[in-house]
Write a structure and sequence with these properties.
binds NADPH dihydro-nicotinamide-adenine-dinucleotide phosphate; 9-stranded mixed beta sheet; metal-binding; 342 residues; binds magnesium ion; binds the ligand CC[C@](O)(C(C)=O)C(=O)O; NAD(P)-bd_dom_sf; oxidoreductase
């Protein structure tokens, strides 16, 4: 079995004399910066002037421009949106890197697809939490953590792996388990997971179920509870105890329906399409499309986002959730989107 690293396997001394610059203060950035600080690491934040700058200052972190923060740091963690990283890296981070520094990512996209080519004189590694940033923060505060992958692309100091593990411990991930991977494996599996299962597969499944019920004349509110709201309750059981644990809690009728109807819905054709999705990721076709979409200022992204936010399941859901304030995420901000610009 693959080695899984936990807190006890980590030498956190390797980070004790280093300054870490977290570049970006969004979903991952705010979590890494605050968790590292609370783990005793010397952390600064690199940003442009704006909303995040104010937030990071309010959270009591030292904030500098991206180039100043990169200049001061020994370890530079790039937590900007993937699509903006190459430009900011070229203009503000690369000129500040010194021999023996570490350049770090939370996703391998830009290095793997050669949008960022680091200089030969720095360590390059990734520490990629397998969960949303707001949960990296929330679970850390609860005394737990989100599992993470790490991968070393360049090891000039001979310490890259130890520093990566110490970083993972600092953000709380070594409480849950940290696994070694490569930039290629992290990038391809992360993209596949979010497209085919976690985000794309899931939202399409939920919408198809909702639409099937509503088109058959059932109440949209009933369809919302059945196909979206209850999903969390079912997934929580799978998270805690696997599929068997979930099936233990549901009725035998539901379990029989799971066995006979599940494979009719997610059938061989769906799996064949998943293989095509994976092929597009592996060949770089998906990455090329996403890079071009950004160069054109995201016309399709914005149009689809607008249409999705106006879907009946979102309209009904927003109304129903107003009546259930307890379901709102505790730390996620701006989750309700009224236009196409998020
Ligand atoms: N979201 C997640 O949970 C996960 C993300 N990752 C990876 O982590 C990385 C960061 O993703 P994520 O946290 O989602 O990113 P976000 O979209 O949340 O990052 C937004 C942050 O970047 C800042 N920013 C944007 N453009 C610039 C710029 N030109 N100069 C300076 N600051 C800028 C924003 O500042 P401002 O307020 O000024 O706009 C804000 O602080 C990515 O590589 C992603 O793939 C990995 C695992 C999970
Ligand atoms: C599932 C989406 C993700 O890969 C993540 C939270 O891990 C992302 O890129 O945000
Ligand atoms: Mg991911
Ligand atoms: Mg991802």
């Amino acid at each position: 079995m693959t080695k899984v690293y936990y807190n006890g396997d980590v030498n956190d001394y390797v980070l004790s004399n280093k300054k870490v610059a977290v570049i970006g203060y969004g979903s991952q950035g705010h979590a890494h910066a605050q968790n590292l600080r609370e783990s005793g690491v010397d952390v600064i934040v690199g940003l442009r002037q704006g909303k995040s700058w104010e937030q990071a200052k309010q959270d009591g972190l030292p904030v500098f421009s991206v180039s100043e923060a990169s200049e001061q740091a020994d370890v530079v963690m790039v937590l900007l949106p993937d699509e903006y990283q190459p430009k900011v890296y070229k203009e503000e981070i690369e000129p500040a890197l010194k021999p023996g520094n570490a350049l770090v990512f939370a996703h391998g996209f830009n290095v793997h697809f050669s949008q960022i080519v680091p200089p030969s004189y720095v360590d390059v590694f990734l520490v990629a939490p397998k969960g949303p940033g707001h949960l990296v923060r929330r679970t850390y505060r609860e005394g737990a953590g989100v599992p993470a992958l790490f991968a070393v692309e360049q090891d000039v100091t001979g310490n890259a792996k130890e520093i990566a593990l110490a970083y993972a411990k600092g953000i709380g991930s070594a409480r849950a388990g940290v696994l070694e991977t490569t930039f290629q494996e992290e990038t391809e599996t992360d993209l596949f997971g979010e497209q085919a299962v976690l985000c794309g597969g899931l939202t399409s499944l939920v919408k198809a179920g909702f639409e099937t019920l509503v088109e058959a004349g059932y109440q949209p509110e009933v369809a919302y509870f059945e196909c979206l709201h209850e999903l969390k309750l079912i997934v929580d059981l799978m998270y805690e105890d696997g599929m068997a644990g979930m099936r233990y809690s549901i009725s035998d009728t539901a379990q029989w329906g799971d066995f006979v109807s599940g494979p009719r819905v997610v059938n061989d054709q769906v799996k064949a399409e998943m293989k095509e999705v994976l092929k597009d990721i592996q060949t770089g076709k998906f990455a090329k499309g996403w890079i071009l979409e950004n160069q054109a200022n995201r016309p399709e992204f914005n149009a689809i986002n607008k249409r999705e936010n106006e879907h009946q399941i979102e309209v009904v859901g927003r109304k129903l959730r107003e009546m259930m304030p307890f379901v709102k995420q505790r730390e996620a901000k701006d989750v309700v989107v009224s236009n196409a610009e998020n």
